[in-house]
Amino acid sequence: MARGIVLAITGASGAPYGVRLLEVLLQAERFVHLVISPAAVQVLRTELGRGVDLNRFELSQLLPSLSPAHAALVQYHHYQNLAASISSGSFLTEGMVICPCSMGTLAAIASGMSQNLIHRAADVHLKERRKLILVPREMPLHRIHLENMLRCTEAGAIVMLASPAFYPRPQSVADMVDFVVGRICDQLGVPHSLLKRWGEPSASG
Q1: In whole angstroms, how far apart are CA 167 and each of 81, 137, 192, 198?
Q2: Residues 90-104: pLDDT tens digits?
Q3: What is the DSSP secondary structure assignment for residue 197, as one 8-state letter?
Q4: What are phi and psi of 127, to 5 degrees?
């Protein structure tokens, strides 16, 4: 079995980014270790109208039309299960993404706190020098936010603000989501065709 990518979805606005990233990773045949925070459950319901039960989780709650073959590529971990495989540095992964990443989660990582599985898995990726991608979606930012981003960056994380570009001339919210997800996939080395890259000829050119 492939080592897999850890994907954590936390309680910041931006749930469509996390769900779309999960979908794209599965379409690319990547194994995913999925963790969802309690606050993310509320945001998923508000922004996508999808109800998730963390204690009786089924992937169809997030991706209703997912094929059984792709569903087999996901291992769900409860956020309180600190005995999960991804909490240990001896368990190999291809990297971890927290998308979206709440400011509370960012602060816990910056402080080295391991209060739940998301924090612990992030700490493991930092200490093992594996790729950790944090995707905050917050504005404006105060000094503590910025300092926490700096501390995480200095520890080895990659901070990718959920900032869609406009040079591809997005025609929908989905296009804007795909741009951010595509850039995350670039960092993970996951091939995709989600965005028009700067310098590429247009379809009419």
Answers
A1: 43, 20, 19, 8
A2: 999 999 999 999 999
A3: P
A4: -70, -30
